Task: inverse folding
């Protein structure tokens, strides 16, 4: 659900529109619910009306194409006015009886936040009266009239840290990974493999790659199908380091450091050559091992892909609408590839927005994105942007959540050398398919062929790649 909100421009800082017309963002409770789904045996619970839960359930089912466990306290007019403590109690007892979850995560909604329910106090009374409710129950305040999807995810992970993280003797080689909500299950699998290849043992929280990676379970489960176990959450205080991906995860990483003393490293992005280099260099220093040969090869492949593709990216105008951390990852990568970020619209405040090399960053909706994207060569946002792309007559790349009109969204990978390489090819092929197909005799084509044959004698070359300095300027 998306509540009306003023739209702000980064430069002016003033409201330019009184309400959301065509929503780009999704709500905080949905972000919190997705984070809770990354815990094994979990049951997310919305404290609100049945409608709030039903709409969220539809979005997740359409995106992941999986069965999604999501429950509600089913507030109505009377219980909303009188208080929802009794509804929470009934919901917890029913969930415990029918689903036997290992973890319950409660997210508030605009309805109960407006009423001002003291959910934390209600939980203390309920757990005191019902000792059978012995599983961890974590509550997070996520009014859907404030913030956005990314905020709800970050608040939920922070609440889990506050409730369950404890100090423990350090286990050599163990690291904690805190992925942002912009990372797909496929991204998490790739990152875990990278960390493991350095001889490290990762604990990922939340781990959507275990619960929403699109596998067929052996048996039916009324709760989440996999993810981080409650036992593993209790062990994260023993890690040597915490790796957080995205500015949204900085508060959770800080809480973990304060509670356990585990140092944290926050990566703004893992997409792009420089961003990936930073990750591999950090893992090498942390593990005391050199970067494995397979990743040196992947880096070489990425550099070659960038050389192949940069003729098609240079000067292209791109419009992006996404949550702040995804906007930063894609926007910074596009800039590295020689594109111009002509329009950037996002959903909530974030420190990374001030550093984004764009003509302007707006907190807005898809109407704002469409208004700024005219004349662009590519529009990037989730599936709700397809009508805008059609009206503008420009190519459309689906990124983010929800993606419901294409298959495999959960398996897309854009992190590390390999993920970035595949993204270069995906976007480059979009430009190729919708632009001028070069033929022999074209000046740019001839320069490309010259590069492939190597520089002529006497040519000055860029360090390490054998590319004439004049090449990008002349094309």
Result:
């Amino acid at each position: 659900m998306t509540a009306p909100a003023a739209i702000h421009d980064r430069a002016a800082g003033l409201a330019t529109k009184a309400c959301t017309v065509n929503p780009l963002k999704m709500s905080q409770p949905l972000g919190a619910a997705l984070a809770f789904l990354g815990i094994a045996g979990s049951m997310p619970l919305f404290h609100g009306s049945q409608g709030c839960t039903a709409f969220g359930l539809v979005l997740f089912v359409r995106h992941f194409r999986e069965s999604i466990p999501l429950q509600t306290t089913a507030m109505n007019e009377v219980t909303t006015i009188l208080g929802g403590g009794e509804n929470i109690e009934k919901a917890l007892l029913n969930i415990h009886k029918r689903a036997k979850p290992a973890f319950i995560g409660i997210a508030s909604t605009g309805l109960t936040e407006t009423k001002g329910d003291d959910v934390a106090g209600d939980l203390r009374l309920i757990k005191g009266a019902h000792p059978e409710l012995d599983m961890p129950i974590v509550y997070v305040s996520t009014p859907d009239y404030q913030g956005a999807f990314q905020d709800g995810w970050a608040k939920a992970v922070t609440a889990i840290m506050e409730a369950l993280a404890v100090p423990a003797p350090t286990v050599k080689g163990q690291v904690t990974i805190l992925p942002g909500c912009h990372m797909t299950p496929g991204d998490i699998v790739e990152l875990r493999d990278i960390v493991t290849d350095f001889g490290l043992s990762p604990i990922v929280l939340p781990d959507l790659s275990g619960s929403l990676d699109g596998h067929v379970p052996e048996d039916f489960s009324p709760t989440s199908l996999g993810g981080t176990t409650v036992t593993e959450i209790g062990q994260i205080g023993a890690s040597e380091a915490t790796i957080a991906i995205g500015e949204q995860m900085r508060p959770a990483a800080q809480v973990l450091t304060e509670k356990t003393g585990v140092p944290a490293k926050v990566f703004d992005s893992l997409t792009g050559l420089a961003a990936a280099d930073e990750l591999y260099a950090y893992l090498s220093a942390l593990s005391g091992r050199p970067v494995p040969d397979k990743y040196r090869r992947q880096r070489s492949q990425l550099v070659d892909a960038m050389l192949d593709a940069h003729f098609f990216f240079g000067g292209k105008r791109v419009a992006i609408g996404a949550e702040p951390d995804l906007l930063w990852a894609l926007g910074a990568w596009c800039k590295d590839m020689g594109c111009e970020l002509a329009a950037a619209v996002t959903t909530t405040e974030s420190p990374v927005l001030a550093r984004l090399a764009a003509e302007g960053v707006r907190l807005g909706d898809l109407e704002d994105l469409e208004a700024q994207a005219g004349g662009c060569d590519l529009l990037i946002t989730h599936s709700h942007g397809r009508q805008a792309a059609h009206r503008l007559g420009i190519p459309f790349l689906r990124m983010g959540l929800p993606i419901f009109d294409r298959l495999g969204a959960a398996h897309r990978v854009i992190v590390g050398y390999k993920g970035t390489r595949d993204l270069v090819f995906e976007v480059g092929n979009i430009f190729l398919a919708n632009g001028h197909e070069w033929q022999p005799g074209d000046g740019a084509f001839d320069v490309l062929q010259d590069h492939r044959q190597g520089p002529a004698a006497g040519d000055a070359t860029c360090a390490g790649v054998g590319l004439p300095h004049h090449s990008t300027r002349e094309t």
In short: Residues 293-313 form the longest helix (21 residues).
